Every structure is written in structure tokens, then in C-alpha cells.
Amino acid sequence: MKFLGLGATALSVIALTATAASARDQVQVAGSSTVLPYSTIVAELFGENTDFATPVIESGGSSTGLRRFCEGVGPNTIDIANSSRSMRETEIAECAANGVTDIMEVRFGYDGIVFASAVEGNEFALTPADVFNALAARRVVDGKVVDNTAANWTEVNADLPDQEILVFVPGTRHGTREVFEEKVIIQGCADSGAKEVFEAELSEEDAKEACVRLRTDGRSIDIDGDYTETLARIGSSPNGIGVFGLSFYENNTNTLRVATINGVVPTTEAIASGEYPVSRPLFFYVKKAHIGVIPGLKEFAEFFVADAIAGANGPLAAYGLVSDPELASVQQAVADEVTMQ
């Protein structure tokens, strides 16, 4: 047998075929903590209502899940990566370098990012500019760039509660962090006028970096765990505000009070209409090379996006998912095993 001249992809396919007989009988999934509860609900229903084994669902964050997904092809690698953001070009290139070339991107719905604090605490009506001015490492005061030393929300906006600034932010491995930066911090940087001042002094890239650089003095605290860790931090620090997915908040309204953003209360209806400004699509990525090798993989993907599961009246919507208005097109793409171009 001669393998000389075969590329990494061909070798991966050969390895996958050779081990098909001893492949796992459970679909393996890892990734976003935001997608975790949705994926877990679907996995349990899939195991209960089909002849396939219940998929194994792990968390770890979007970046961690996609890194594991891109490790290669074969039963010793995961089949699906959950993500609360779309794959980056660098991740697609990493996948390709390891023989993972046929990737199905499945958008199954939408979620919102909310700011929530202890239910018995103050009410907050925030804007992206407020959040930027509270958390950015440097902000603009009287037209000048200064180090951010604001200790109280009233120093940011006199209309906000007299309460210390303490915000628990998802760590950089979480997909929520990327959306938080793009739709809250960078937007707030622009709305506050800081972006214009930064760009007058720095290159465009350095100005963006200046916008997203957060404080390291204990006012903005990265949380590398999932939302339950953020919730626990608020439990021990009543003045803290946490960044959560809408669905997590909606399932913890007995302990959390949500803030408005630009005067809009975050609800599934406000996200579906586009009125709430901080929302994002949710994805899972399927390794097409594993379809037909790992029992139940395609069936699980189809089950996930079925009307009865991801539709407006399904169990995921009951948990807080905003159903994708183009769900029928998503269903067809999964049926046809359409891959990313």
C-alpha cells in the first residue's frame, strides 16, 4: 500500500473509513455555554424519541469547542461544535490544515445579550455609551483621553443609580464576549465620541483596540466559566452586574433584574423585531465527513432544527430562543448537507 502523495484530507478520509466499524455510537458535541442548554434539551429529546443514543454535550466556550472541532477527522474527534458566533477565517484555515474541510454551518435561532443584577437591587437603564464609559480602560473626558478611574455609575451618567461599578464580563474564549465587544463596547465607543478622538490620534486598528481594551483595576472582571459562575458572583457581590444570554436570564428571573438598553426591555419579541440592539445568531457546526460514520449525526442535526424543536412553539423557544424566521431554509440546507463555501 502506497500513501505517498496523498494530502492530509485524503489521509483523514482513509483513517475515518478504516475505523468506521469501531466508530462511536454517540454523537459528541462541545462548545458555547450559551448554546449548551439548548443543545442539552435537544440531545435529551433526541435520545428519548429516536433509536439513537443520547448525544454527549460538553461546554467550554465557543473558541474551545471550535478548536476541538478543528483537531481533525475521525471518531477520536468531536462531531459538532456549538458556537454563539460565526467561525473566524483563522479557525476555518486551522480546520483545513487538519483535514476538516467540509463543514456544515447551521444557524438555529437567535439570542440576546443582557445586563442583569440582583433582583432586589437598583434598576438600570443603560446605553452602550454608559457601558463603554464605565468599563473602558481609557475614555474621553472634556475632549481629552484619560485613564478611566470612575468608581460609581453616577460618574458615568448622573441619571444612573448611586452604585459602585462592578461588571462581570464573559472571558475572551466565549462567543458572548465577541458580540459584547462589537455591539456594546465598540458601539458605545462610537456613541460617546471616544472613537473619533482615538482615530484622530491613532491608526484605525489601534483605535479599535483602544475602544475594546477594558479596565484591569477590578471594575471589569472576566468570567471564564459559564453563566452559573457569573450568577454566583452576583450572589456574593450584590452591587455586581453580569452579562448573560437572554435565555439564562429568563430562567433566573427569581434572582435577577434585567437592565434596559437604549430604553428597550430585552424580550424574545424585541429581538425578533430587531428593536433590541444587542442580539446575535446562534450556530452549531457539523463535520460532514462524520455523517454516515457516527450513528445519528445527521439525524440529530435535522432533529435540532425541526419545527417541533426550534420553531416558535417548540421547547427551545420556551427556554428563550428566538426562532429563526428562515428556519425552513436552514432545514433544507441540513437535509442537503450543504457546506460552507
Would you mind describing this structure in some detail?
- The structure is a single chain.
- The model is unreliable at about 1-20 (pLDDT under 50).
- The protein starts with 7 loop residues before the first helix and ends in a 6-residue tail after the last helix.
- About 40% of the residues lie in helices and about 20% in strands.
- The chain has helices spanning about 10-20, 35-50, 60-70, 90-95, 130-135, 155, 175-190, 195-200, 205-210, 225-235, 245-250, 270-275, 295-305, 305-310, 315-320, 325-335; strands at about 30, 55-60, 80-85, 105-120, 125, 140, 145, 165-170, 220-225, 240-245, 255-260, 260, 280-285, 320-325.
- By secondary structure, the protein is an alpha/beta fold.
- It has 16 helices and 14 strands.
- Strands 1, 2, 3, 4, 8, 9, 10, 11, 13 and 14 form a 10-stranded mixed beta sheet that branches. Strands 5-12 form a two-stranded parallel sheet. Strands 6-7 form a two-stranded antiparallel sheet.
- Helix 5 packs across helix 7 and helix 8 (about 195-200) packs across helix 9 (about 205-210).
- The radius of gyration is 22 Å and the shape is globular.
